[in-house]
Amino acid sequence: MPQSPLLALIFMAVAGVAIALQAPINSALGRSIDSSLAAAAISFGVGFAALLALVALGGEAGGIARVATLPKWLLLGGALGAFYVWAALWSVAILGVLTSITVLILGQMVAALLLDYIGAFGLVARDLSPTRVVAALLVAGGVILSRY
Predict the structure, then answer these.
(1) What residue ranges do the domains of the chain occupy?
(2) I need a labelling partner for 123 at 20 to 30 A (CA). Which of 5, 34, 37, 86 fits?
């Protein structure tokens, strides 16, 4: 796939729409089966099946075979994703979609500021500039405005 910043921006915008849709759909699933944890498991199962099909169709099944050779901490992403799916589907019924997504973005921004600053996981370190901090503070204001 080409390394295009425009394409990356488009994909992330579409992913943002997907996250906004995913939370209330999964919340409805949880209410339908009376279990937020089971709903999260079902959601992950469907996602796993979809990704497995794409891996097979893309001829990248060899990547799955290499999982046994990886440092185990690299597998934490799946657990973090599972927590996100459960937390979102549980929280959206309480907070609503707007506040849930806004506070999600705030959490992402705070973590991203830190991860960028320290250059975590082999990323290029980026300055903790006042502009970037203000961006996070503006989202924090958005959390307050979305709720009250």
Answers:
(1) 1-92, 96-148
(2) 86
